[in-house]
Amino acid sequence: MSLPDYIIAGAQKCGTTSLYHYLTDNRYIVPAKKKEVHFFDWNYRKGTSWYTDQFPLPLKRKKRGFITGEASPYYLFHPHAAKRAFDTVPGAKIIVLLRNPVDRAYSHYNHQVRRGKENLSFEEAIEKEGARLRMERRKMLRNPNYNSQTYWRYSYLARGIYVDQLERWMKYFPRKQMLIIRSEDFYKNTGSTLRKVTGFLGVPDSSPKTTNPYKSGSYEPMNPDTRQLLINYFRPHNRRLYQKLNVDFGWDQ
Question: Which of 67, 20, 7 is nearest to 208 (CA)?
Answer without folding.
Answer: 20
